[in-house]
Automatic annotation (TrEMBL):
The lineage of its organism: Bacteria, Bacillati, Actinomycetota, Actinomycetes, Mycobacteriales. InterPro entries: 3Fe4S_ferredoxin (IPR001080), Fe-S_cluster_ET (IPR051269). Keywords: 3Fe-4S, Electron transport, Iron, Iron-sulfur, Metal-binding, Transport. Ferredoxins are iron-sulfur proteins that transfer electrons in a wide variety of metabolic reactions. It comes from Gordonia namibiensis NBRC 108229. This is Ferredoxin. The keyword Iron-sulfur applies. The keyword Amino-acid biosynthesis does not apply. Gene3D superfamilies: 3.30.70.20.
Amino acid sequence: MRIEVDLDLCQGHGMCELEAPEVFAAKMDHVEIRDANPDESRRAAVEAAVQYCPTQALRLIEDDE
Ligand code: SF4
């Protein structure tokens, strides 16, 4: 899987970092993706991050898409 972030939408709330700190690092007003191709073992945390992002800036893309 692969993660994409729309930085026009991201406001740096940091919900994603709370859910998956090994994948996301929230900065002042945007997020840094620490691991754009996370291991399957992180799927639940990444899906939660995508779900709870208040601006829907995150997208999880499957490898075969
Ligand atoms: S939760 Fe969404 S808006 Fe907040 S830092 Fe993460 S991607 Fe950006």
